[in-house]
Design goal:
The chain has two domains: about 270 residues, 2-Layer Sandwich (Nucleotidyltransferase, domain 5); about 210 residues, 2-Layer Sandwich (Nucleotidyltransferase, domain 5), CATH 3.30.420. It has 22 helices and 24 strands. D-xylulose binds next to helix 14 and strand 20.
């Protein structure tokens, strides 16, 4: 009996490289593998996948580490599934991260040698060893420069869907151009993490899709093309260094022979454009159409939803990206996500079980809402809050874990307030990411948003979304059909909203600021 084709989704996230394979006949995930950067590639000295730079606010990751992880992930996957059954591949990348390649990159890509690793093949292809990633907020000056050249942030917002944002790629490129002009001049191509990984899989330069491209402050949302004025305000010769912008279902080509010979893929296996992790998660969570919002509880927390028409956040903290299924998606990103929850857990020397208990066993009289900014926050832009830090220290001394609930309520009241500009009516929320396993925490979100919350069977919604995009592009199926087939909810785990006086809580929250 002939075997059915399978689809592969890759996910290059902050902390790991994952691979997930889906079967369109059964609708099941048939194999999953992941390489944790910190644990499996400790030589990069990046326990959580990133390193701090020498200057305040700089955060980098290593594209060589990503390449090593890609080889490793495919090697592990090939032991689990016959890779010749994969008909098409797509992928996902942490958003905004930029990769700087020299003249040699393209020719090296075209002749990858199977006797060497990807890292060794491409090692002389970079004009910058490290990539600034989304956690970098060192580009305040460059944001101001570009906004001023454009006649103000309102103009940038109207063109790109976001005001100038420190972690977005445009300001990062300008910083490189100004601070390392020679290395910038030697840069032939600038990729995003997503389009870099896609180029490697296809053995040739890939386009950037509208989903991830919109996170650069360089793409004109209306024209769906690079904005000439923004390119000029950012860095010289930039148009020549950027790949084309194309829809998310763009066919890039067949897989590079390297992967055929080394891991047993079929030479006809197609590679489709990669996209950002949030646009991929939108698809993987079944949010391709408006009405469903997604909350991703990862290193950062994000809130996003499909949008019929682009609508901008008047406060400037939110973003509009391309929806890989067509149209647009909104997004807000919070720095005080899991890193902040981990800080609280560590302060109390708790494990996650004890943390969850503190969220349920509480006396409502004792819970005081806290500002959730134990680290600097971007939504809204605010430095870490000394009062909150001191309150946490005091609660640990007093052994008063009720503050944990105060922090978590504060965290999601902030998310609720910051999501109000989106204007879509939300009938349900899907939560994904590591912390979505925590039922007590998810219940608090359901109460604050007064919306039922579902969880997926699959933990990695970005990799699932990427695999679904490969399947949709390859079979030309409707999004409804693909969503119905692959997006399965963990039925027993729905959280229905309970009574919650949101107006009173918002007043309490606002009084703290
Ligand atoms: C979104 C953002 C983060 C990264 C994390 O704007 O910066 O969610 O995509 O990978």
């Amino acid at each position: 009996m002939p075997t059915a084709p399978l689809y592969l989704g890759l996910d290059l996230s902050t902390q790991s490289m994952s691979a997930l394979v889906i079967d369109p006949i059964s609708g099941d995930v048939v194999a999953q593998e992941s390489v944790n950067f910190g644990q499996e590639l400790p030589q990069y000295k990046a326990p959580s996948g990133f390193v701090q730079g020498a200057l305040e606010g700089e955060v980098f990751s290593s594209p060589s580490m990503w390449l090593e992880a890609l080889d490793l992930a495919l090697e592990k996957l090939s032991a689990k599934v016959e890779l010749k059954r994969i008909a098409a591949i797509s992928g996902s990348g942490q958003q905004h991260a930029s990769v700087y390649l020299n003249e040699q990159f393209q020719s090296r890509l075209a002749q990858l040698d199977t006797k060497q690793s990807l890292k060794a093949n491409l090692e002389n292809g970079f004009s910058r060893e490290l990539s600034p990633i989304w956690m970098d907020n060192s580009t305040h000056t460059q944001c101001e420069d570009i906004a001023t050249s454009m006649g103000g942030n309102e103009q940038v917002l109207a063109k790109t869907g976001s005001v100038m944002i420190e972690r977005f790629t445009g300001a990062q490129i300008r910083k490189f151009f100004k601070q390392q002009p020679e290395a910038y001049a030697q840069t032939a191509t600038i990729h995003l993490a997503s389009s870099f990984c896609c180029s490697v899989m296809a053995g040739k330069n890939a386009s950037i899709d509208y989903g991830d491209g919109a996170g650069m402050n360089l793409m004109n949302l209306d024209a769906q093309d690079w904005d000439a004025d923004l390119l000029e305000a950012t860095a010289s010769q930039l148009a020549a260094k950027l790949p084309d912008l194309k829809p998310s279902n763009q066919a890039i080509g067949t897989i590079a022979p390297y992967f055929v010979e080394k891991y047993g893929f079929e030479s006809g296996c197609m590679v489709y454009s990669f996209s950002g992790d949030n646009p991929n998660s939108l698809i993987g969570c079944g949010g391709a159409q408006a009405g469903t919002a997604v909350i991703s509880l990862g290193t950062s927390d994000t809130f996003f939803a499909a949008m019929q028409q682009p609508l901008f956040d008047p406060q400037g903290f939110g973003h509009v990206f391309g929806n890989p299924a067509g149209g647009y998606m909104s997004l807000i990103c919070f720095m005080n996500g899991s890193l902040m929850r981990e800080k609280i857990c560590q302060a109390f020397h708790y494990d996650w079980g004890q943390f969850s208990q503190a969220l349920t066993n509480y006396n409502s009289e004792q819970v005081n809402i806290q500002l959730p900014w134990l680290n600097d926050e971007i939504t809204p832009k605010t430095p870490k809050n000394q009062q909150a830090i001191e309150a946490l220290t005091q609660a640990v001394i007093d052994n008063d874990p009720s503050i944990i609930r105060g922090f978590i309520e504060g965290q999601f009241i902030n998310m609720y307030l910051q999501s109000q500009w989106m204007g879509e009516s939300i009938a349900r929320i899907i939560v994904t990411g590591g912390a979505s396993k925590n039922t007590q925490l998810v219940q608090i979100i359901a109460d604050i948003f007064q919306t039922p919350i579902d969880r997926l069977e699959v933990a990695n919604s970005a990799a699932l979304g990427a695999a679904m995009r490969a399947c949709q592009a390859h079979t030309n199926s409707s999004w409804d059909k693909v969503t119905q087939k692959f997006v399965n909810f963990d039925n027993g785990s729905r959280c229905e909203p309970r009574a919650y006086d949101i107006s009173k809580k918002i007043q309490e929250f606002k009084a703290l600021r």
